[in-house]
């Protein structure tokens, strides 16, 4: 039996003890570390948390069944299997995250999987465990990443590097500008369409670890773009208790850097209140690299931000190749 199934059974024993004491409840870690002793309690006896309690018990039961018998569910399929129970997909997403916290595991390992939103293009073949082959090089455009990266037995490629871009619009713009012909090097292009899902992060991790490819990322010169870069590099703050295998610490941030905004001329706009709050939140994090911290302070000093689109005209032939060649990354 899997470790995850064993943990669920221990939680059920704890739940039965609480039942004997007259308070059916579950404890969920508040913080994002597996050793924390700080929990919040979700109780069936309290009207305000009764629905959350039922969702957690339901998901724990489904997860245990998957761990014992195998298989998987999609988040969408599970929700539409009983929408009256979940009430909304947001409630289900929160419950799934709470189950992950309780089990100190990632959503991938629950067996309840969200459809992949990441896109890939370029020189890579995904060889699946069932014998199928997804050859991205034969498609003229974007290919959706496999929804379960653990079904990818291995990846074959002649690429020299992986390039991650923050937004789908930039991804599509680079393809329309025939970047694979103008870039000068064989590479794999990936986007997580903003904040990346676990599948996109897992595939990037495997490409760097298993295929030994250097990876570079291009994001907007704003605090949210920087945060997205940090999610790829170090993992999500909400899931930091289970980031192993989903991070790429070697990821190189080639731009846009806030220190470049002054040289862009036009295209920059003023930061908003939310931007400044995000900058302060990021600067408050421990373990932040010195170069990233310096760029965040620069962003706060100039009070301007810029999007990748401001340099889109010379990205593939000038900006990206020169950044890589001259090692102008953080």
Automatic annotation (TrEMBL):
A Pfam family of this chain: TP6A_N
Assigned keywords, A-Z: DNA-binding, Isomerase, Magnesium, Metal-binding, Topoisomerase
Cofactors named for this entry: Mg(2+)
Molecular-function GO term, any one: DNA binding
Highest taxon of source: Eukaryota
GO biological process, one term: early meiotic recombination nodule assembly
Any one of the GO CC terms: nuclear chromosome
Active site positions: 80 (o-(5'-phospho-dna)-tyrosine intermediate)
Protein name: DNA topoisomerase (ATP-hydrolyzing)
Organism annotation: Drosophila ananassae
């Amino acid at each position: 039996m899997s470790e995850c199934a064993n943990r669920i059974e221990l939680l059920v024993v704890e739940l039965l003890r609480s039942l004997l004491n007259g308070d059916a409840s579950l404890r969920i870690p508040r913080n994002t570390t597996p050793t924390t002793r700080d929990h919040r309690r979700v109780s069936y006896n309290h009207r305000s948390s009764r629905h959350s309690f039922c969702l957690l018990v339901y998901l724990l039961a489904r997860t245990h069944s998957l761990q014992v018998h195998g298989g998987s569910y999609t988040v969408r399929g599970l929700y539409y299997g009983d929408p009256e129970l979940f009430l909304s997909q947001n409630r289900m997403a929160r419950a799934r995250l709470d189950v992950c916290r309780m089990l100190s595991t990632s959503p991938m390992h629950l067996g309840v999987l969200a459809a992949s939103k990441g896109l890939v293009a370029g020189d890579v073949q995904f060889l699946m465990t069932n014998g199928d082959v997804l050859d991205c090089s034969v498609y003229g455009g974007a290919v959706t990443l496999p929804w379960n990266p653990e079904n990818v037995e291995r990846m074959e490629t002649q690429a020299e590097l992986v390039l991650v871009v923050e937004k789908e619009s930039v991804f599509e713009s680079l393809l329309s500008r025939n970047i694979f012909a103008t870039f000068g090097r064989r590479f794999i292009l990936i986007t997580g369409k903003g904040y990346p899902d676990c599948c996109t992060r897992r595939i990037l991790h495997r490409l760097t670890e298993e295929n030994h490819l250097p990876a570079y990322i291009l994001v907007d010169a704003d605090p949210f773009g920087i945060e997205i870069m940090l999610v790829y590099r170090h993992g999500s703050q909400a899931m930091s208790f289970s980031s192993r295998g989903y991070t790429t610490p070697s990821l190189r941030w080639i731009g846009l850097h806030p220190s470049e905004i002054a040289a862009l001329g036009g295209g920059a706009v003023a930061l908003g209140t939310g931007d400044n709050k995000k900058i302060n939140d990021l600067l408050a994090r421990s373990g932040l690299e010195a170069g990233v911290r310096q760029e965040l302070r620069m962003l706060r000093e100039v009070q301007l931000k810029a999007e990748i689109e401001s340099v889109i005209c010379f990205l593939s032939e000038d900006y990206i190749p020169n950044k890589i060649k001259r090692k102008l990354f953080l």
